[in-house]
Amino acid sequence: MRIFKLLFNPLLICIAAGIAYGVCLLSGRFWLADLVVHFRLHMTVAFFMFAILFILQKHWRYSLCMLAFSICSAIAVQSAFAPPSQPEGTAKASLKILQFNILYTNEEFAKAIPWIIAQDADIVVLQEVNEARAGEMGPLKEYYKWSQIKINPQREAFGMAIFSNLPVTKFDYVNIGRGWNKYTRTEFMVNNTPFHLYELHTPPPMSRFFFSQRNRALELMGNLLSEDQTQHRILLGDLNTTIYSPFFSNILSKTGMHHAQQGYNMEGTWPQALPMPLRIGIDHIIASRQVKVESREVQGYHGSDHLPVITKLTFYEDK
User: How many Cβ atoms from other residues are within 10 Å of residue 80's Cβ?
Assistant: First the structure.
């Protein structure tokens, strides 16, 4: 009972909240702080709930302290989710993309293939494809007109596969991350409109080394996207970061692009074992200005620690 009272001491809670808020401000410098900032929405809700609790207990000073932390944190959350500006011009084409980190040890993946086909997406991008999972993709290769499956023998979790019923004009598979990580770049034609899709799976930032490798990959991708002047382009994949990370927002500021969670789509994709309010969103689509995200739907469990996402896009053409 004494331990319980100590843990719920208002002063200690305010100190802990201040430390958590301060750590978020350091997320661009330290890998442990970067792990904390991904839970900024959760912290905002927790700060507000403690503020209400302290009001009910008439701890006025502590309630004001928690309200201040809640408001400051909520401003950052609102900024990350705020809807993007609307594209200009006229709608020219629509597109449906299914993305899924299938988990290379997922023995249930074969059962998910009929579901993937039933979604009838124009493009399917699968990540964490190893030799065993690739061997189960025969039905997808039969259903889709074009496909590429790339196994990474150095890191099983970094293989990928892409399937398309759209005309493909070019496919690049490029080494980064000291040779064991790669990104892909696929050029499509959609109603005679060029469309460039970049796919990337970054290392999870669970150590200083992987933190630096992830950030290096994100910086590289930001440079590539800013240099690519194609009107319709997106970056897709498990980026092992959330929209609250400064390394994620750097891509947006550098490229002038927006992400699919803007518009207050807060549903997370990992880890699937947790209920929706506790999951975080690390499977992303980042789109150029003339690509409008019409919808983003997180789907159900299919054997992976990630949940698949279906995104519908509309391409606009400048007047």
Answer: 21
Q: Which residues contact 165 (CB under 8 A, 6 or more apart)?
A: 122, 123, 144, 145, 146
**For residues 254 and 269, what is the distance between their CA atoms, to the nearest angstrom?**
25
What is the total residue count of the chain? 319
Q: Would you say 104 and 133 are in contact if contact means Cβ atoms under 8 Å apart?
A: yes
Nearest to 205 by CA among 218, 194, 196: 218
Q: Is the pTM of this model over 0.70?
A: yes
The helix (H) or strand (E) run that includes residue 12 is: helix 10-25
Measured in degrees and rounded to the nearest 5, phi and psi for residue 172 equal -120, 140
CB 102 within 8 A of CB 129: yes
Q: What is the average per-residue pLDDT within 166-174? A: 96
* CA pair distance 111, 89, nearest whole angstrom: 42
Structure tokens at 152: 């990474």
